[in-house]
Amino acid sequence: MKYTLIKGNYHVVGQSPDADSIKFRADNPALWEAIDTENRAAFTQNFTAEAGVITVRLEGVDALETHYTAPAPTPAPGTNPPAELLKAGSYSQPSSLGRLSADKFLEFLGITGVKWRTFGKSVYVAEATVNGAVVKTKLADPLPGYIVTGDIEKNGRPVAWSFKGTTPLADGTAITRAQLGEMVKGSANHHLIRQGLVYPFYFMTLPAVARAELTKAAKAAQQAAAKSPTATTPNVWRMDQTLTGVTLSSLRVLTEERAIFPYLFRKLAKHYQQAALRRGLSAVSAANESIPLEGFFNDANPHIFVVSEQDFLRLDDVVEAKGNTIKMRVPPYDVVFLS
Question: Which domains occur in the chain, in start order?
Answer without folding.
Answer: 3-63+94-207 (2.40.50.90)
